[in-house]
Design a protein that fits this description.
single chain; about 350 residues; alpha+beta; 7-stranded mixed beta sheet; 4-stranded mixed beta sheet; 9 helices; 13 strands; about 35% helix; globular; binds adenosine-5'-diphosphate; binds magnesium ion
């Protein structure tokens, strides 16, 4: 491993191109703090994600390039879920001996590729050694028009509930990894198993879609699906003081789920409770449906209506299936209980 100074110099050089082009950045990496110039009439969004080795990821089966991608992707997803545009990133790293120069080259190839795609500039961070495993703290700044942030608390009774993409592929990918499946570099890369692993290890955040939804004020509430659809929808309900009814047959379940669950009921459960899909879940008035479809088309995202917000102060979820409405547990993924 190179020295800390050389490591930071490398990062500074890699971040320099984007930094020069960014009018809102007065000073990035290289001083005691970065200096930003806020645009008039905008608000700043800030979010942070902590990734701990063997809790949030395993080096054993994660290509370093994809880990660099994911460290940024999870934070971009949070900014998208607020209806904002991502701008600046900071990365704090606790580095164990096991991660050498080659590892970081690849990690930052993945990180900077995604950053470049979305106009994100690395403006700082901190670097230390870690006696245990690798720790990555990813901080993301973004912006939205004043008052335009889409909160979890804005859902209204009568809203339609929508989700982007499909759910369950990431949970299926994780199961396959835990069962010993590995990312292959060779032929057959496009098969469903490899796709599932990729969805888990290298998720694509809905950056442009989220930002457009915010810009055009099309949603009353929004969240990204990190703990599972059931649990994240329950977060919206709790914050908004409403309830929600999901149409079981409308939920878009990823084809990858069939690799690990053939029983339809079990497949549904995995899809709605498995986490880390990083799709956007939002509520909007039906009157905006046409505009939503237009933005989805322009940003290359599929949007599916999966239910409706209903008036109930207990914030409990319901599931509509075969014409009947039954209570639906909001259980999902929990870091403390597993
Ligand atoms: P300080 O002693 O003030 O914390 P450092 O020597 O840790 O300064 O950092 C020097 C510069 O390098 C700062 O601009 C800091 O933000 C940046 N930096 C350090 N580590 C990272 C990192 N992992 N990613 C991006 N920038 C970093
Ligand atoms: Mg420091």
């Amino acid at each position: 491993m190179q020295s800390e100074l050389a490591f930071i110099d490398d990062l500074r050089a890699r971040a320099a191109g984007a930094a020069r082009q960014n009018a809102e950045l007065r000073h990035g990496i290289g001083d005691d703090a970065a200096v930003l110039r806020a645009a008039a009439n905008s608000e700043t969004l800030i979010t942070v994600d902590l990734l701990i080795e063997d809790v949030d990821f395993r080096l054993e089966y994660t290509p370093p390039r994809w880990l660099g991608h994911k460290a940024l992707a999870v934070s971009l997803s949070d900014i998208a879920a607020m209806g904002g545009r991502p701008q600046f990133s900071l990365l704090s790293l606790g580095i164990p001996r096991s991660c050498g120069t080659a590892f970081w080259e690849e990690f930052f190839d993945g990180y900077f590729a995604l950053a470049g795609e979305h106009g994100v500039t690395l403006i700082g961070g901190d670097t230390s050694s870690a006696p245990g495993g690798l720790a990555i703290d990813s901080i993301q700044l973004g912006e939205c028009r004043r008052g335009a942030a889409v909160l979890r608390s804005g859902a209204k009774a009568g809203d339609e509930i929508y989700i982007t993409g499909s759910i369950g592929a990431s949970a299926a990918g994780l199961r396959l990894l835990l069962a010993g499946k590995r990312v292959s570099g060779g032929n057959g890369d496009d098969d469903l198993t490899q796709q599932a692993l990729r969805k888990h290890l290298r998720p694509e955040p809905r950056v442009e879609f989220g930002w457009r939804i915010g810009e055009e004020q099309l949603a009353h509430s929004m969240i990204d699906v990190s703990d599972g659809l059931a649990r994240d929808l329950a977060h919206i309900c709790a914050e908004s003081g409403v309830s929600a009814e999901i149409d079981a047959s409308s939920v878009p379940i990823s084809p990858e789920v069939s690799l690990v669950e053939t029983d339809a009921e079990k497949a549904f459960e995995l899809a709605v409770r498995g986490g880390e899909d990083f799709e956007l879940l939002f509520t909007a008035t039906g009157a905006k449906a046409k505009e939503l479809v237009k933005i989805a088309g322009e940003t290359g995202v599929v949007v599916t209506r999966i239910g409706e917000v209903i008036e109930r102060s207990d914030s409990a979820l319901r599931l509509r299936r075969d014409g009947k409405s039954i209570p639906f547990a909001s259980r999902g993924f929990d870091h403390f209980t597993g």
